[in-house]
Write a structure and sequence with these properties.
With 90 residues, this protein is an alpha/beta fold. The protein is built from three helices and three strands; from the N terminus they run E-H-E-H-E-H. The chain has one domain (2-85): Alpha/Beta hydrolase fold, catalytic domain (Rossmann fold). The chain has a three-stranded parallel beta sheet, with helices on both faces. Helix 1 links the parallel strand 1 and strand 2. The protein starts with a strand and ends in a 5-residue tail after the last helix.
Length: 90
């Protein structure tokens, strides 16, 4: 099973319309994918440690290489996370 990490936007949550629409899409069209939508802190200074802890505690997110998607502010976190994992943004 493939695991994908969805990073929501700033001042948003896993319950946002965009996050829920993404979740519904994967459930309907890609039932073989496990979508992870963590509750990210609204304090940017805490998010980096939170993401690294999430990756460390959920090794399945890296089994097939990092698979990431994001909404707005979450997209600005992708380069940091990929660099921390030693991967490249394509």
């Amino acid at each position: 099973m493939q695991h994908i990490l969805y990073l929501h936007g700033f001042l948003s949550s896993p319950k946002s319309v965009k996050a829920q629409a993404t979740k519904a899409y994967f459930e309907q069209h890609h039932s073989d994918v496990m979508l992870h939508i963590p509750e990210l802190s609204n304090f940017p200074s805490q998010v980096e440690a939170q993401l690294l802890a999430l990756i460390e505690s959920t090794p399945a997110l890296l089994e097939m290489g990092p698979s990431l998607t994001a909404g707005s502010w979450g997209g600005s976190l992708l380069p940091f996370l990929l660099e921390s994992l030693g991967a490249k943004l394509c």
